[in-house]
Here is the input.
Amino acid sequence: MIDIMSMMNKVKEAQAKIKETQAELVHLRAEGEVGAGMVKVIVNGDRKVLDIEIDPSLFNDKDKDMMKDLIVGATNKALENIDVKIKEKMSAATAGMMPNIPGMDFGNMV
Here is the structure.
């Protein structure tokens, strides 16, 4: 038989831990790089772009469209990378706090 009070306390603990972990996500950093390092984008755990590095060789009119594509690609790659880090951090924060309930993935609660 499941102890409902114990389970409710664990849910409250998990909620508090998730909130605390979400506040820490801003400190996570991830980089996306494309074009053999010609464009790099750095994002944080709030999914905000922090920095863009562009190889100076791309600064000419004829490569403008390619540069746009590289920036978009690097940004998307950085966002994919930060999503992985966020999921890992959230999973670690809630590990062992809740019973394994099919369909309940607390690691995705961002």
In short: The CA atoms of residues 34 and 74 lie 5 Å apart.
